[in-house]
Amino acid sequence: MTVLAPPPRLGDHFGGRLGFLGLALAYALLVAACVVSLLAENELSLGRNPLANLVKTAGEFARPSFVDVWFGNPQLEYRSDDGNLLRVENRQEVERNHLAALAEATWTTIRIATLGSLLGAILALPLAVLTARNLSAPRPLAWLAKGLLDVTRSIHTLVFGLVLVGIVGLGPTAGILAIALHSLGSYGKLFAESIETLDMAAINAVRSVGAGPVQVFFNAIWPAVLPQFVSSHLYIWEFNIRDSTILGIIGAGGLGLLISEATSLFQWGRLSTVLLVVFLLVTTFDALSRRIRKALL
After folding, report:
1. Are 270 and 65 in contact (CB under 8 A)?
2. What pLDDT, in 10s, does the model give residues 177-223?
3. What is the pLDDT of the chain when averaged over all its residues?
């Protein structure tokens, strides 16, 4: 005997579509309110001569400062408005010194991202075990762990950096701790989701022979989730390479310090050089991490 499905109700047919249209309308109203309020406050102005400023800035960006190592003026003269000679500078030597400082700042950025990512992953692992729903941790501990992960994930790295610079002082330590605290939330979420995809039969089998929580973790959970943990670590590490480039702006060291100096002095050629280094660093690490993740599949 064939059983006919009940016909769809009118509300079921239009509810999803009408709900989506309602959300789209609310979004359109929000966008309109943002634009109208900014126009009323005269905050959407492009300033004076935006096209000329754009052309001038683009021209300076098009000539990165590192080319002065070969083509810089070895006898560059700086004169006052009335023509008096102020000083003579060897641009080739100055740029070589700048590139040496750039290499040191790049190494500092790599160290901040690497150690901060590793520390965040280590701290997140026990919290992920507590928040994974299939492991049935005590509810108060699970709520506490989830709340901690949510808080650290919602606070930006720069905010952590500003606070930590005031606590531990200027330097890479503040950057490492800022990266670790912000990454803690992301690691915990990804690690917990990896644990929740496990087959509980293997975990229950280990539990059935009298294994304790630590033995269950290292014998049933850890071997199964290790490839996903490594993949998540590489992804967040790659993101932190980019994120750590701006921590120097708040005094945490690295490439951000050179970016801050170049922008404050309107040295767009030097900024272009620093951004090229950032691009090469991120692109290289992205290619390496993608290859490693592919090997883990």
Report:
1. yes
2. 999 999 999 999 999 888 888 777 767 777 777 766 777 777 777 77
3. 82
For the record, the structure tokens of 239 come out as 């993101």
Question: What residue has token string 């002065």?
Answer: 68
* CATH value at residue 260: 1.10.3720.10
Tokens of 40: 């009323």
Helices (H), the chain: 10-40, 50-61, 68-71, 91-131, 139-154, 157-168, 172-196, 200-208, 213-216, 222-243, 255-264, 268-296
pLDDT in tens, 81-109: 776 776 777 777 888 888 998 999 999 99
Residue 66 lies in a domain: no
- d(CA 149, CA 179) in angstroms, rounded, equals 14
Tell me the pTM.
Answer: 0.77
Number of domains in the chain: 1
* pLDDT digits 0-9 by tens, 125-135: 999 989 988 87
CA neighbours within 13 Å on the CB side: how many for 180?
20
Per-residue confidence (pLDDT) for residue 86, from 0 to 100: 67
Which residues are CB-neighbours of 131 under 8 A, at least 6 positions away? Answer: 137, 142, 145, 146, 149, 188, 192
> Which range of residues forms the domain containing residue 154?
104-296
Identify the DSSP state of 247.
Answer: G
Tell which residue, 234, 237, 233, 227, has the closest CA to residue 296. 227
